[in-house]
Amino acid sequence: MSSRTPDEARVIPLRPPAAAPAPSSREPLWRDLVGDVLRRERLAQERTLKDVAEAARISMPYLSEVERGRKEASSEVLAAAARALGLGLGDLLTRVHGELVRVTARPSATGRGGSRSRHDGLCLAA
Fold first, then answer.
1. Are 56 and 83 in contact (CB under 8 A)?
2. Whole-model pTM?
3. What is the pLDDT along the chain (126 residues), one digit of tens a residue?
4. pLDDT (0 to 100) of residue 64
5. In total, how many domains does the chain have?
6. Residue 12 lies in a domain
7. 11 belongs to a structural domain
8. Which residues constitute the domain of residue 49?
């Protein structure tokens, strides 16, 4: 027999509880996100690494390292690379922030951005 009282609600789970995030998952590095955004923008403009590096007045190998997330670029280098791509530093940082949000967002339980129930199930009361 159950130890519930007749007036106590009973929760019936609709799906198994969500698993905890894998311990190996980590936050992405800012330099990786910056590099991804720079490379994506350069390719969208169908420009070569050489062309953008020359316009930014930085070396092509260094820009390549920045795009691959291997180098932590200074704000001056980032501003120069952004300008070479027709962006302001604020535009670049806004895109990088959007990418950070995209890669770290966890889907909501409802799929519509709503909140989860404390019990994640159906509550029937009689």
1. yes
2. 0.65
3. 556 566 666 666 666 666 655 544 678 999 999 999 999 999 999 999 999 999 999 999 999 999 999 999 999 999 999 999 999 999 999 999 999 999 888 665 444 444 444 444 444 555
4. 97
5. 1
6. no
7. no
8. 30-104
Place of tokens 């070396």: 59
Give the domain CATH number at 80: 1.10.260.40
Query: How far apart are alpha carbons 120 and 122 in whole angstroms?
Result: 7
Structure tokens at 38: 């720079």
Is 24 a domain residue? no
DSSP letters, 61-119, are HHHHHHHTT-S---HHHHHHHHHHTT--HHHHHHHHHHHHHHHHPPPPSSSSS-PPPSS
Q: What is the DSSP string of 10-70?
A: EEEESSPPPPPPPTT--PPPHHHHHHHHHHHHHHHTT--HHHHHHHHTS-HHHHHHHHTT-
- Asked whether the beta carbons of 34 and 92 are under 8 A apart, the reply is yes
